[in-house]
Amino acid sequence: MSYATTLSSRYVELMSGSLNRERSAAGRRSMRLAALRAPLMVKLIGANVAVVAIVLATCFGTGGHLVATIGVAVFLVVVLHATLLAIALRPIRDLEMVASRVFQGDYGARVEKSTVADHEVVRIGAMFNTLLDGLAADKARLRALATEVIEVGDRERAALARELHDSTAQRLAALLLQLSAAARDCEDPALAARLLAARDAAEELTEEVRLLSHTVHPRVLDDLGLVAALQKLGRDASSGTGVDVDVDVGDIWKPLPHSVEAVLYRVAQEAVRNAMRHGSPRRIHMVLRVDAGTASLEVHDDGRGFDLARVEQRRDGMGLLSMRERVALVDGWLEIKTAPNDGTTVVANVPLQSASSAAS
Questions:
Q1: Where does residue 87 rank: exposed (0-12), middle (13-18), buried (19+ CB within 10 A)?
Q2: How far apart are CA 301 and CA 281, in angstroms?
Q3: d(C-alpha 328, C-alpha 348), whole Å
């Protein structure tokens, strides 16, 4: 064996030993850190157990004949101490529970007053409640602002729809009549044909303006309510598309608040539009149910479906986000069930009591 080979082998042994020592030291440091990261109550009880162990070991070493009696007494002291610790640390656990509830979305959670909390813990709880009150107030202001933005948008759309229907469509209808009269009275066959073509174009334009007016804001929703609006939405969606759209409204025995009707109609409109545009369905089924406390709308299509998580991460999911925000503004919740090649189901639920109080 050469001198170089011997040096190389020795270097490898030294490096291996160094790595093993570093790993052993890292393992010991990890164990110490794990012990330090233990809960406070565990560390306190562990310290008491260590003290008891030392006392008992000392008694055994000195040969004391009262070891058993001392051990029982010390054990009872440790149990009593652990019980007192559990009571003393309860306010801290309450703070942790409130923080966990807030993290899960329960912004109404608050730290309750405790008879065993010390002054510092009481101050922390009061500060925590103050922060939560400020958060709730900010959330309420943002919600009021969002509600006002949506209501202003709805009013603007309603005004635009009225303008399209009552002014633009009427003027186009008058133009249509004039073109028809001109084509009838024209003696030049070529000019008459051109006038008839212009009349047909004006007729198609009039129909498109009326359809646009209904799409922007359905007047039937204001005039006849949600049931009639959903039925008209189904007829319009199935007209000339080859898609079978049926509406099941059950027995609606009382009118719903206008805010609820507007939200549910927008959800149905967006769900049907998405299905027609992206899903290529053969059938769309809408179901409206109202009980004593909740209005529920379900829109199901047998189209291609989609990857919900992926769509919501892109801007393609803005329509879904809009539906969620609208339903949330009336304290409702929206559920979307879909998968590629498995159709899509959109379910909106709105509590009627909160919607009625918000409207009043």
A1: exposed
A2: 6
A3: 10
